[in-house]
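Tutorial handout. Part one gives the primary structure; part two gives the three-dimensional structure as tokens.
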Amino acid sequence: MQWFAQVSGQVYGPYDDAQMQSFVSEGRITAQSLISNTPGSGFFQAVGYDVFSLWSGTGQAVQAGGGYAQPQYTSAPVQSPAQTPVVANPQITQASEAALAQCVIMAEIRSESLVTFLQRLQTFGHAERIGDTVWILKTAHNVQALRNALSQTLTRQDRLFIVDSANNKTAWFNIGADLDGRIRNLWDEAP
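Part two.
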């Protein structure tokens, strides 16, 4: 199965299921990302495909007739850049009031994405810059939701690391497989 993703009107792909699963785990493809296995039929939010639950580890994919069924929507699919909706604040998972996230956000932005990144960051609350590549933010959103939304503004040249000091949680984007493993080992070690 070949998959395509549409970002800001630009179509990327084809990708296989393993690549898409990797993109989901990195936060590069989220439930709201526009994807398709038949681009001529339009692009739909990833959550509309049964296979998204498999990629995200929340369920099993259901295949219909050797391929994945198109999602069922009541509105027309997004087919051109002019029809691509602009979402100011993506739908994300809220943390409980008792567990507000107190985040340190480190972003190495080498592309021209800084302005878009900062605009998206401000939709989560007041972010205070404390260094060239470091911000602090108190928000009702968890680190995974924050990472998923912010990473959509970044490119392969950029890196993102988020620490929620209040809840001892981390999330990152585009760190690399080796460093990913070392972070997991270090963070999961007991003091």
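Part three, for discussion. The chain has five helices and eleven strands. The mean pLDDT is 74.
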